[in-house]
Amino acid sequence: MSTRLLSRAPQDTPGTWKSYLGLTAILLVSAFPVYWMFVIATSTDEAVMSSPPSVIPGSNLMTNLSEVFGMQDVYFTASLINSLIVAVAVTVSTLFFCSLAGFAFAKLRFKGNKILMFVVILTLTVPNQLGVVALYILMGKLGWNGQLLAVIAPGLVSAFGVFYMRQFIAHAIPDELVEAARIDGALTLRIYWTVIVPAIRPALAVLGLLTFVATWNDFQWPLITLNGTDFPTSMVALSDLASGNYVVYRRVLAGAFVATVPLVVLLLLGGRQLVRGIMEGALK
């Protein structure tokens, strides 16, 4: 009987040539915009305007990059540093506050737990654009407009992060484990640091990657609050490169290529943790 059941159990089968062909086609289509950006970033003005356009990278990358970093009205190096400061600060803060709040909503019992969680979820339905005016007024009253603090402060915690961590902790960590730590005399913060954090590292990796990428690519709010400053973020600096009566596309895409490199490196370093976190969340 057991042998018969084992023989009927589903087995992992290797993918067919059709599945590999489909995945390869999806990969090529997804990667082509990045490749095309690199091609333009390495080309001259004549190659950019040629018809049909060239799909082979040129040899003008260093010249285009020197023009981007050497422009007097666009401080591209400072903008990259600002984006890195903002993205790191927001990511670290989001991981800490969202995991702590998710632990509280998932494992602690207090009055208003479900109501507060409902309010957090409800904020996800409100578009960010609706709060821009009020946020700008608030930052102005604090005297932060035109400073990086105005970009960092609104992103210190996110409703999505709280909800995501709450769901992961509720399903991944049994209540008995928390109660056992409490019986051993551990306080709430110690339980969070020694029990919860080690168990949710894959989820932290997923949330950290998503938060860093979203913060690095944020354009609307940095454009509003840093308008007129000499040291904006990288996305605002790219918009400055693309402004004017005549747009030098090789210069713009060279800057875009440089701004994309940190995200690609981050994905290569944390891609395995990203897949692991998604799979563990699905299995839980």
Structural overview:
The protein is mainly α and 284 residues long. The protein has a single domain (61-283), classed as Orthogonal Bundle (MetI-like fold). It contains 15 helices and no strands. Helix 2 (17-41) runs antiparallel to helix 15.
At a glance:
The protein has 284 residues and is mostly helical. The protein has helices at residues 2-8, 17-41, 45-49, 61-70, 76-107, 113-123, 132-142, 149-152, 159-172, 175-183, 188-199, 201-216, 220-225, 234-241, 249-283. Residues 80-270 form the ABC transmembrane type-1 domain.
Q: How many domains make up the 3D coordinates?
A: 1
Tell me the name of the CATH class. Answer: Mainly Alpha
List low-pLDDT spans: 1-12
Report the count of strand segments.
0
Radius of gyration, in Å, reads 24 Å
**Number of continuous helical runs:** 15
Multimeric state? single chain
The helix fraction, in percent, is over 70%
Structural class: mainly alpha
- Return the CATH topology: MetI-like fold
Distance between the termini: 30 Å
Query: Which percent range describes the beta-strand content?
Result: under 5%
Principal-axes geometry comes out as globular
Largest sheet features? none
Q: Give the integer mean of the pLDDT values.
A: 86
Query: SSE order, as H and E?
Result: HHHHHHHHHHHHHHH
What is the assigned CATH homologous superfamily? Answer: MetI-like
Architecture (CATH level 2) name:
Orthogonal Bundle
InterPro entries: MetI-like, MetI-like_sf
Organism: Actinoplanes derwentensis
Protein name: Carbohydrate ABC transporter membrane protein 2, CUT1 family
Membrane topology: Multi-pass membrane protein
